Amino acid sequence: MARINKVKNGMGIALIIPTRNRPNHIIRLVKNLENLEQKPAQVIIVDSSDQDKIVNISSKVLEITKIRTEIKSAAIQRNIGIDYLQTLSLKKAIEFISFLDDDIQVQRNYFNLVLEKFNARKEFVGISGIAKSEELSTQRIRKMRLTNCIGITGDPGTLTSAAVNISPHGIEEFSEVDWLIGCSTWRIHVFHNLRFESDFFGQSLFEDVIFSARAKKIGKLGLDPSISIFHELAEEGRESQKEHYASWVKNRYRIYDYNIQNISKLKFWILIGVLFFYHSLISPFKAHELDKSAGILLGIKRIMQEKIIL
């Protein structure tokens, strides 16, 4: 662990950024943060990069701590940052913990808007904006078509009975929601008893939704569409299509472990069946479709190996 700079900023937000093998993106994000109107009091970069992808990061306007880890997990890297900040908060007035991915860019008044919403709504424990990217828009349309065809629908920002998190796109004003994207900000007391999943590795798909659902028992979650987050969805460090879909299935099923709400395992398995037949039978000749169906089967296998459904 290396302390990189000591520059005091006047707000109680600490920012945690997990990163892996994206040196150019993390450097660009730090420059983005340097130009914000309201800067975080602490920036914690938790880096699991290979040795040849590790970069030195310094700043004259940010207080940065860089923590090195061999654990390649976005969820666990967030937890490492949280654990560090829990001790730091005893010495500093840290009131909020925020998270960004390394391939993110935010608007100049990002934290101004976040703090404004928290100050106006004391009952809210977590707040986020909407992540924007062309690829996310395409994924959202495809997911809606598949879920609608089997009757799994819901309002934007909700978590359905089949453990499907409905995209918040379409929300036009500050609203209470069921789940927040990974790039969100939380009151620090939420982390007194909660952490992200400790056995989700790689991209740790769905860990943000599970954490949100658990945190919702503590207080309300809010989404403000005026808060803009651009997500590049960088290719570096991403898993194969097969591994991606295996994690998508296995991790999504974890929501049932927490008895979050009256959700139906039957609807979940209907959804998985529809996805499998879509990728393996309807469009098998499209690029990566068979890898996706193989990933779905692998995810089912992993659920059974953990005796979740046995």
Features:
single chain, 8 helices, 10 strands, 18% strand
Give the structural class. alpha/beta
Kindly identify the CATH topology of the largest domain.
Answer: Spore Coat Polysaccharide Biosynthesis Protein SpsA, Chain A
Poorly predicted tracts of residues: 3-8, 134-138
Radius of gyration based on Cα positions: 19 Å
Count every beta strand, where a strand is a DSSP E run of 2 or more residues.
Answer: 10
Order of helices and strands: EEHEEHEEHEHEEHEHHH
Task: Give the number of domains.
Answer: 2
Distance between the termini: 42 Å
Percent in strands: 15-25%
Helix content: 25-40%
Spatial shape: globular
At CATH's second level, what is the architecture of the largest domain?
Alpha-Beta Complex
Number of helices: 8
**Main β-sheet description:** 10 strands, mixed
**CATH superfamily descriptor of the largest domain:** Spore Coat Polysaccharide Biosynthesis Protein SpsA, Chain A
Mind explaining what this structure looks like?
Strands 1, 2, 3, 4, 5, 6, 7, 8, 9 and 10 form a 10-stranded mixed sheet that branches. The protein has helices at 23-34, 74-88, 110-120, 134-148, 207-215, 241-253, 265-282, 289-305, and strands at residues 2-3, 13-19, 42-47, 64-68, 96-99, 104-106, 124-132, 175-177, 184-187, 220-231. It has 2 domains: 2-231, Spore Coat Polysaccharide Biosynthesis Protein SpsA, Chain A, CATH 3.90.550; 241-305. It is 35% helix and 18% strand. The chain has 8 helices and 10 strands. It starts with a strand and ends in a 5-residue tail after the last helix. The chain is an alpha/beta fold and 310 residues long.
